[in-house]
Design brief:
This protein has 179 residues and is mainly β. It has 2 domains: 3-40, no CATH class; 47-177, Sandwich (Jelly Rolls), CATH 2.60.120.1340. The chain is 0% helix and 47% strand. The strands form 4 sheets. Strands 6, 7, 9, 13, 14, 16 and 17 form a 7-stranded antiparallel β-sheet that branches. Strands 8, 10, 11, 12 and 15 form a 5-stranded antiparallel β-sheet that branches. A hairpin with an 8-residue loop joins strand 4 (25-28) and strand 5 (37-40). The two termini are 44 Å apart.
């Protein structure tokens, strides 16, 4: 006979008896002919919140230093724990007729080391336009509000770089991932 007997599970015809799990556990197969066991589900990797910001206004700069060109490409996220990680993803249309442009993300007014820095190939003749974006996994180690902003710069002060060229929509999205 099979079924649940007390706090044990009798697996039909196998002669194997296993315990019942508790809330938050999952049944794990130990292999053919072995008793299955319940284990606590692995922690972490849970999506805790998503915040996004968009901008569809064409923006430009001739600055050769990073500048924040759009207040609408700014978002604030408050991590639930200090061990949470923030996954940043961006998408933009940009244009340049020579030289190159770079995009990056700043956290609370400072460049995130190694983040983004999308350097476009150098072109010397004619306009070019492309869709670009980058991803970055940040560890702000705080439960205070964190601000992320998109910054851009041009390789040549005399030649403007454009973001959201022809008024396409640029985005920045932050995903909080639980530890």
């Amino acid at each position: 006979m099979s079924g649940i007997i007390g706090s044990k599970l009798n697996i039909r015809g196998s002669g194997l008896v296993g315990s019942l799990g508790t809330d938050g556990q999952h049944l794990l197969s130990s292999g053919a002919g072995k008793t299955n066991v319940f284990e606590t589900a692995a922690a972490g990797g849970k999506l805790l919140q998503v915040v996004t910001a968009t901008d569809s206004t064409s923006r430009s700069t001739t600055s050769t230093s990073y500048v924040h060109v759009s207040s609408t490409l700014t978002l604030d996220i408050t991590p639930a724990t200090t061990s949470s990680r923030i996954f940043i993803t961006t998408s933009f249309s940009n244009n340049k007729n020579s030289g190159y442009m770079s995009l990056t993300v700043f956290r609370d007014g400072s460049a995130i080391s190694g983040a983004g820095n999308l350097a476009e190939p150098r072109f010397s003749d004619g306009d070019w336009q492309s869709m670009n974006g980058f991803n970055w996994l940040d560890s702000p180690a705080t439960t205070s509000s964190v601000e992320y902003r998109v910054y851009m710069k041009s390789s040549e002060g005399s030649n403007a770089s454009y973001l959201n060229y022809n008024s396409t929509t640029g985005t920045i999205t932050a995903f909080e991932i639980g530890a």
